[in-house]
Amino acid sequence: ARHVEARLDNGLVQQCCPECSSSLAERDLKRLIPTRLMDRYLGMGLEQAVAATENLHSCPTPNCPMRVALEPGDPSRFVCTTCRKECCIRCGAQPYHRKMTCERYAARLKKDRRCSLLKWMEETGSKQCPTCKMAVTKQNLNSQGTQRAECHKMVCRNCNTRFCFKCLAVLTKDFTCGCTKDAHGFIDPNTGKLLKHLKTPRKGVAASSASSAAA
C-alpha cells in the first residue's frame, strides 16, 4: 500500500510490483490496497484519461465527477446533472458566458484582471519593475511613498534588476539617482541579506556627511 501511495503522490497512475516491476492489474490492486487508496487510484486514472482524450471535458465545479464528451459543433453551454451548475464546458467558464465566444470571454477576463491589478497598484502606491514590468511592493503597503521604514532601493524578485522605487531609475554599482542615501544598500528578496550598492562613494558625499556631523 505504501508503494502505491508513494507512486500516486508522484503523479504515477500505472502501478507495478516493487520487487519484479511487473504491472499490477486493477483486480489485483483491489485485494492489496485499502478502499481509500483504491478510490484515489481510480480517480487519478480517470483524470489522466480525460486529459488524454481531446473531446472529453470535466465539469469545472470543484470535486464534481461529471465528464462530458463534446464533439465539434456541439453547444458549449452545459448544465451539470450532478452539481446542477451552468458552465461553458469548452473553456470552463462558470457561469456560462452568454453572447460571447470563449476567446472573447478570455480576453475580457484578462483585461478585467489587469485593470483590477492596476487599480490596486495605484491605491497602494505600488510600482512596476522598469525592466520586466513585474508589480513590486514594499513590505509595508501603508508607507510605500516614504522612507521611514524602508528606503527606495529595491531588487526585483523576478529579474533581479536593482532600481529606485521612487523614480524607477535602474541603479548600478557606478550609478545612483540620489533619492536614497548612498550608504544604503539593497536587501536580497530571496535571502534577506544586505547587498552593497555603490562600488566607490561619490566624490564630496563623504566629506559633506562629515561636515554635517561636525556641525
Q: What is the string of SSEs from the N terminus onward?
A: HHHEEEEHEEEEEEH
Shape: flat
Helix fraction, binned, reads: 25-40%
Q: Give the rounded overall mean pLDDT.
A: 84
Strand order of the largest sheet: 1-2
Largest sheet: 2 strands, antiparallel
Number of strands: 10
Determine the N-to-C terminus distance: 77 Å
Tally of separate helices: 5
Q: Note the beta-strand portion.
A: 5-15%
Segments where pLDDT lies below 50 for 5+ residues?
A: 206-215
Helix and strand content put the structural class at alpha+beta
How would you describe the overall organization of this protein?
By secondary structure, the protein is an alpha+beta fold. Helices cover 31% and strands 12% of the residues. It has five helices and ten strands; from the N terminus they run H-H-H-E-E-E-E-H-E-E-E-E-E-E-H. The strands form five sheets. The chain has a two-stranded antiparallel ribbon. Strands 3-4 form a two-stranded antiparallel ribbon. It has a two-stranded antiparallel ribbon with strand order 5-6. The radius of gyration is 28 Å and the shape is flat. The protein starts with a helix and ends with a helix. 11% of the residues are buried. The C terminus is likely disordered.
What layout of secondary structure does this protein have?
Elements: H1 2-9, H2 26-32, H3 35-52, E1 56-58, E2 67-69, E3 77-79, E4 86-88, H4 102-124, E5 127-128, E6 135-136, E7 153-155, E8 162-164, E9 186-187, E10 194-195, H5 205-214
Antiparallel strand pairs: 1-2, 3-4, 5-6, 7-8, 9-10
